[in-house]
Write a structure and sequence with these properties.
mainly beta
Amino acid sequence: MANYWEEAKNAYSGAHVIGYEMATRKFRDFGVLRPRFSVYSAINVDPQGRKLYVFSVPYAPEDVKNDGCHLYKIDIPSGSKQDLGRVVEKAQGCCYWFFIDHKGDCWFSLWRGHGRYPECGHGNLYRVLADSGKIECFEDVLPACKLAPDGKPVAEDQLIDRGWTWAEALPGRKRCLFTMGYLAGEDERLWIFDPSKDLRSGEAFQPVGYVGPTFLAVALGKNRVFYVQRGDLAIGRGWFGEIERDKDEYLVSRAEDLHVKSISLDPKTRGAVIDHGKIVDQDGRTPRYIDALAADEAGRVYTTGSWHILPGDQCTLQLDWETPVREFHPMKRAQFFAFMDVSKDLG
């Protein structure tokens, strides 16, 4: 769902779940998951059980008021869909990431977005049991939040926002990495979650080290976690690039100063952070905002995002959907795919 006109929310037929099989290079349409509902945003695969978990969110006002967010499980071989039930009642919500462990259990939290989704957050962690499909909630178990570099605690009223903003299974899928970065309690550490250990005592959550404010642009690559962040931690706090990118660049200034950084998972150097430098492309462009990140084992980092443009570049056209005219306006930025090779920094 990317059209937020009121008439569009009611007319929307619903999000399809699409699969792509790399071996055959063929797409597969599993159909509309739930009529009029979007998929926002978590989706992940249980490779052993051959199941697909999907988070479904209402947008039509009637559905938001009378229904809520559902969790679905799709059997990949047959395509059959199972509604596991509502995880947010009579409201919208957001779940960015699922961790599916080696037993097939699906773990997740709900993103609160500093009150945008008031039913979410609260430090709650959820589990879907692979065998029964039952959804369990472990209330207020996520760690309290601290800031880099010295562990200063955040304000007490921010703890209600705690939730995963990024999660990734470690090899073997017995444990996962996660962050609770900007807009999720402002914790500034990288964590390891081990579901075999006790959640209530905190034993299941072990910090790797301080990374500073992060959000969606985080990725695991071999034995490091890479992330995009403003060069100065202090000015990076409270700076939400997805919002700032649409303001006049001369009001915000061109000094976003976005860097690629990484933190080590290697036992010998665990927690050590490398700043790989400011992101500047071969022609001198700098990014305005980085949407997403991926990394490989060779030290290459791949990004998509909004960049400042040079003369002759094709710009982004943005629809001013909040006005009755709804015209497209040229922006002073454009969407680019880019990659960076930081292998020389890794030795």
